[in-house]
Amino acid sequence: MSIKGSSGIEHAIDHWAAADLPEAESDEAKEAIEFMKRVAHALAKKIVKWLKMARVGLTVRIAAALILTYEDIMTDILVSLEFKETGRDGFFRTSVGALALAIFLHTLVAWLDSAKKPPKVSFRRFLVSFSMLSPIMDAYNVWTGKDTDKDLMFTPDEALVMSRVIELVFENLPESVLQTYNLLNTAKSDIAPITIFSIMASLAAAAFIMCDSSISHERSYMGSHQGPYVHPIFGYIPAKTHRQVGLYTGMFSFYVGYFSMNVLAYTTLATYFHILLIPIMVIFELCVYGVAQYWRGGLLYFRAPLENEI
Questions:
Q1: Tens digit of pLDDT at every position of the chain (310 positions)
Q2: How far lies 144's CA from each of 6, 52, 90, 141, 301, in Å?
Q3: Which three-class secondary structure state does DSSP give residue 89?
Q4: Domains in the chain, number
Q5: What is the Rg, in whole angstroms, of the alpha carbon atoms belonging to the chain?
Q6: Which of 162, 205, 280, 298 is the most buried (most CB within 10 A)?
């Protein structure tokens, strides 16, 4: 039963009862089912405040991630245009190439995800991904609590994570390295303000995405059927709201520094091996992505015959 994505407690309880409770064949069974529904309604009323807070928190986190993601994309596009206008064609081609790679991977994941769907559905998913709207669609599916479709490779939560990983690794990081390299190797009088703002936007977007993804992973252990604090490492999140805000703030600050150090390390590499930097980064990222998908069986899922599925 998904309460967080439901329009109301009453609707969620009724949906759960219709889907999971057995059909009543006698008067005694009908009375038992009605009693269970009354108990569920009574319990749900006691936790409605917590559920509303969770709903608000989910909305804020998804909205913040989307705003930062598209702010980063728009500033990267503006910086690319600034490269073109100032005659730095090499920087322009590299920047456009990183954006094109991210779009290609979005469409590839959409095709793999909907390979078992009818062609019309697959084409619609392709258009959404090609239009760089995959983060919005995936975030909406998670926010509304969309049920898992057995014909899709990824669950809504996994699709959102995949969308964020593509933006972070294949667009955010290369663009940040390129813009930082340009910043450090350009005269102060020739530096456009949009370049500095774009780097700041990339750092904020990357830090928030990594922070939210990490805490969501921890929260998944706390919300498991075994209860919180059962894992020796994961699942330790404060219960009080102000402590959770402090945890988010601390982790966000940590990831800003962590991502900044990675960008500076790649920029230093680019200073001495600038011709090989972007190809090395892309090849390495594709290898990591391919190994991860092969390890979880994702690359072979769309070829599996239906009779072999469970």
A1: 444 444 456 666 777 677 666 676 677 777 777 777 777 777 776 666 666 666 777 788 889 889 999 999 999 999 999 999 988 898 999 899 999 999 998 998 888 888 888 888 888 888 988 888 888 988 888 888 777 777 788 888 888 888 888 888 888 888 998 999 888 888 887 888 899 999 999 999 999 988 887 777 666 655 554 555 555 555 566 667 777 788 888 888 998 998 898 888 888 877 766 555 556 666 666 666 566 555 544 444 334 444 443 3
A2: 7, 14, 43, 5, 26
A3: helix
A4: 2
A5: 23
A6: 205
Q: Give the predicted TM-score (pTM) of the model.
A: 0.70
For 133, the domain range is 53-308
Residues 136, 32, single domain; the answer is: no
Residues 6+ apart with CB under 8 A from 235: 218, 219, 221, 222, 224, 228, 229
Q: How far is Cα 64 from Cα 60, in angstroms, rounded to an integer?
A: 6
Same domain, 113 and 235: yes
Cα Dmax for the chain: 85
In a domain, 300, yes or no: yes
End-to-end CA distance of the chain: 21
In a domain? residue 17: no
Same domain, 151 and 237: yes
Total Cβ atoms within 10 A of residue 308: 6
Kindly state whether residues 26 and 100 are assigned to the same domain.
no
Do 107 and 129 contact (CB within 8 A), yes or no? yes
The tokens for 307 are 């009779």
Burial tier of 259 (Cβ tally within 10 Å: 0-12, 13-18, 19+): buried
Q: How far apart are CA 293 and CA 47, in angstroms?
A: 38
Considering the domain architecture, whether residues 38 and 169 belong to the same structural domain is answered as no
Q: What is the DSSP-derived secondary structure letter of residue 151?
A: T
Q: Are residues 35 and 154 in the same domain?
A: no
Q: Are 211 and 251 in contact (CB under 8 A)?
A: yes
For residues 302 and 249, give the distance between their C-alpha atoms in angstroms, rounded to a whole number.
Answer: 40
